[in-house]
Write the structure tokens for this entry.
Amino acid sequence: MEVNTNENILEQVTSSDYKYGFYTDIENDLAPKGLNEDIVRLISTKKEEPEWMLEFRLKAFRHWLTLKEPEWAHLHYPKINYQEIIYYAAPKKKKELASLDEVDPELLDTFNKLGISLEEQKMLSGVAVDAVIDSVSVKTTFQDTLAKHGIIFCSFSEAVREHPELVKKYMGTVVAYTDNYFAALNSAVFSDGSFCYIPEGVRCPLELSTYFRINAANTGQFERTLIVADKGSYVSYMEGCTAPQRDENQLHAAIVEITALDDAEVKYSTVQNWYPGDKEGKGGVYNFVTKRGLCKGKNSKISWTQVETGSAITWKYPSCVLMGENSVGEFYSVAVTNNFQQADTGTKMIHIGKNTRSTIISKGISAGKSNNSYRGLVRILPKATNARNFSQCDSLLLGDKCGAHTFPYIEAKNESSIIEHEATTSKISEDQLFYCNQRGIDTEKAIGLIVNGYAKEVLNKLPMEFAVEAQKLLAITLEGSVG
Amino acid sequence: MNTTQTEMTQTLDSLLIEQFEANEALLLSNDSPRIKDLRKKHFLEFKEKGFPDSSQEKWRFTEIESALDQSFTHNLTCENPNTNIEELFRCEVHNFKSEIISVLNGCYYSEKGALITNEDGVIYGSLNAAKKAFPELFDRFFGTIAHAENNSFVNLNTAMAQDGVFIHVPKGVEATKTLQIIKMIDKNENIFVQNRHLIILEAGSKLNLMHCDDSINHHSSLVNTVTEVFVAENAHFELYKLQNLNDASALVNSLFVQQHADSTVKTNTLTFNCGMIRNNIEVSLDGKGAHADVLGLYLMDKQQHVDNQIRILHNVAQCTSNELFKGILDDEASAVFNGYIHVKPDAQKTNAYQNNKNILLKPTATINTMPFLEIYADDVKCSHGATIGQLDQEAMFYLRSRGISLANARLLLMYAFAADVINAITIEGLKTRIDDMVKKRLRGELSVCEKCVLHCGSPEKEYNFEIDLSKL
């Protein structure tokens, strides 16, 4: 697919009318601060949800009340006051800017470096474009094409209305509301998200994508994605995030659930570029995400690829439960932290079925005063005969004030399995930099070059459009990290 | 000597708390004010925390509760043994010269005296005696590096340990003989034993130490050992730990090593047999140019369990460390490995390696391995690796196709797997002995105690693999 398509689609998206919603009173459609059963009911009512959905939310909420926020991650942040957050915000018109001249030049600079088109820049920075995106998902233009193949790709609320049987059947089966603190929170208050169903034997002709943005200040963002790939189907799903500059920390607790039936394959790619906070570590998004795929059927495959460059705090472990015989799980990750960012990210591979295989490639890059941890679990259960895992997690340190950590957990309960784990920690050597400098490449560009080479194994797994954006993102994130 | 012994009808922790509170004055009678406060503090911490349990992250794979859940007796102070100690420990050491330090049921015994000075200047003996004889030295070192983070067994040990071994190698002294601590448990009832060892190597000194844990009978015991080792500038220390206890025994063994500039330390933990073993090893590299080798081998079967928690702290620049743990697990045995390399900010030019390799022989064997790195400096070379697998089928086929029986081929491959760790033993006589023990263990012929396995009994027969080399 050529790069142009991406821009065209965005253009279409931004210029099309907003067809969904229930926003009669746009300006004031903001729930009061705080979280209680009334808020959960309010969200459900606002979204015109059926009774069973409300029940699900309430069950999750009551369970959440019994839980404690996890503290095991290698992360330090002030305690989140869950009563200070607004849990529901329908799209509302922001103060519009007349032209790009009014936009923060630093933000524009970033856009230019990313190679984002002018139109798109306007949209991203909120210049007189109608489609302001918040808790309600974007209408995608693909829908007609997809409908021909019987593929359902719509917002979560729409799926609840239009395809309740599918949502009921699969929602919460991979990530139960009891799974963890943030999953319970999301299940109680999730705002919207995407739903995708690929029918039996269909190979999805398009790369499906969603863009999530946080635009309203002080608004928690709790989206929920559910992907179901029926027997023999294939889908490549992309998720991209950019968040404009905000001063206060914003909480983001999402859930992604994937189910792959017999012979199905799902490829899930993420470029995460939420606002990381400024150079003093002020502000930035708190990103607590539960992503899990279930390889339910035989020969199924789920592949996670992620490029994590943003967020002040990242707590994210895209996982695969390999239940079907011969199923395959993959995890490719590049996580970059700079300034005061903290990331605790990795994966879990749970081998249940026979002959299951998994691969983990994780590349961490830390710069500034940031901390970057890989935390992963490989668990081989007694019935997973001939299971195979290979993990490699490398860390690259730029600067002497940052930290790079590796916390792998490997549990084998089966003698026929083979598990390998290796990790290295290194820095960019002065020789490499000197070589580049000598050939007229300035230090900043040289670092970009070396980092891209280091991360190539993962970047190569990204769909084309993403790969280009991701490469540039890496360079930008690391700007000024080596003096 | 005053003996306090209570029959167990209550849980071990409440028994111990009662014993301490009733005998506080007696227990702390010979301590300096600093140590008194320290032991009191540790006691209060233990009283608050109690024993660890498997709900704690660092204990989640080791069900220490099951080891604690039986009735134990605990002797608060040492009693005179009614057996003939010299007879019990008197053994011919085959091809291996060592100076034996005997510890029975947690107490130091020797007819040669409570503190012995060797010809070469090395002083060793009872910890209790050393406390009185060298109060300044004792006060300077005791309890300064052992800490009870995630491990309240250290609290308990610091507060209440009966006795243990004290070794002092003065400045510039190179010990000519290997010292060998032999700890035996011989009691006709279930017993809880605590040992506390303090080993001080002054600048430029050298010591090889062997430390054997053995049991004599099949009663269950719970042993809680804490060892503190100080290795001064340019000193060299080698420690071989042999663990061969019965299946009803549980051993919690905590070793803390502090290394100063240009010192080297090598520890080799060889676990042959024990119901449940928990090894906590922590090496602090506190002086530039220090090097630590931390090795281990565990050969477990039946329902045995071994848990190795290894922490290497790179606190200053230019230190190197190398960690290698290998294990073979048979039957329903389970093992845990948690390596942890911590590189402090500014500990530049650090080189640290960590490796854990495991072979599972049966579908019911379990391994949990967690090789962690935590790095806060950039100019470092750190790597870790972990593998879990089986005996190489191709290698097996190669051997079988050359007429080597299945049993022999398996033995040969397992032995080759373990050889990395055995070959790192630098004392020649010891290497041969341990090599024999490994072969014996792999054949399932190593019994728990023919007295002390390592140094007693008849010399083990030379074992050779029945391989016709002409066919290779």
Summary: Chain A is about 25% helix and 30% strand. Chain A has one domain: 132-477. The longest helix of chain A spans residues 443-459. The CA atoms of residues 246 and 309 of chain A lie 17 Å apart.
